[in-house]
Amino acid sequence: MKHPLREHIEEIIAVTDDEFDFILGHFSPLQKRRHQFLVEEGKIADKEYWVVKGCVKSYFFDEEGKEHILQFGMENWWITDYESFVTQTPSKIYIDCLEDSELLYITHENREKLTSQMHKMERFWAKKSKFGRIALQNRILSLLKNSAKERYNVLLAQYPQLFQRVPKKLIAAYLGVSRETLSRLND
Amino acid sequence: MKHPLREHIEEIIAVTDDEFDFILGHFSPLQKRRHQFLVEEGKIADKEYWVVKGCVKSYFFDEEGKEHILQFGMENWWITDYESFVTQTPSKIYIDCLEDSELLYITHENREKLTSQMHKMERFWAKKSKFGRIALQNRILSLLKNSAKERYNVLLAQYPQLFQRVPKKLIAAYLGVSRETLSRLND
To answer: Is the reported ipTM for this assembly greater than 0.90?
Structure first.
């Protein structure tokens, strides 16, 4: 059976056995319990995470202490604070686990090594980054353009499994609505 | 004197004369007058643009016909509808020129050719894409977290030249506030 990370990479670019061994050598496994942190505000996010199994969220608090969700991450998703990771400056956000989670991580240093030595992996992450950028652009369009009901429907259509795995109040925090509004949308 | 695109690329990665000639061979020059379109809603954005001289904006209309600005672009900025460009599907946004503009563009096909043949350019755009993603993430954080006054101050600090070159009503459309609110922020 193929390693799940290899299956994931090969959705974009084929790699040989040797190449995959070389790639995997740059990653480390990590187990985290529910509520444990991957990234904390004020600290440098030095690792990018790939979710093997589990569910995580990135989020921040506004000045009134209200939680806003930036992104959820489940199996096969990449997550970190990309600003902190890329620029190696303190993070503005938190990432923690919504479920006990099994992860692979790559350090900033190892990712630089791997991408500079291996065009295929530069290409893989370039493509992933493009799709990440598209998702963020659509989030902005949606925040500026759509009603709460429309944002709810888009999220439900894209990620139906989220609604099974994530508490309602976090769905509300992602959509930027109150839990009461969410209950009405839910009907 | 070095070509401005070469100077721009070499902020990230050094290239030889031959490499730069090869790169430049994938681009074409384009002159556009004020108000002319680079990208139109419903059409596929098949080109990525680099602004040699001038000023452009990407924007869309909400259901009430209100204009929202996604991004401005000035000298040395890259712009297209990345969702349409990457997935080759019809665009959801418009991009037009705020000033008479001089551009270089690369087609989707040429960009694929260039990046697959030349690791350095894959690396260049991967880095650019990372920074584009960071800008979008900060835009989301700012939309969810900050007051209009704070968003105004951030924009002014980052891009003071925008306030000289772009009409006030467009700054308001970027910040998501009315022109009246903007006048008060301006005081």
So the answer is: no
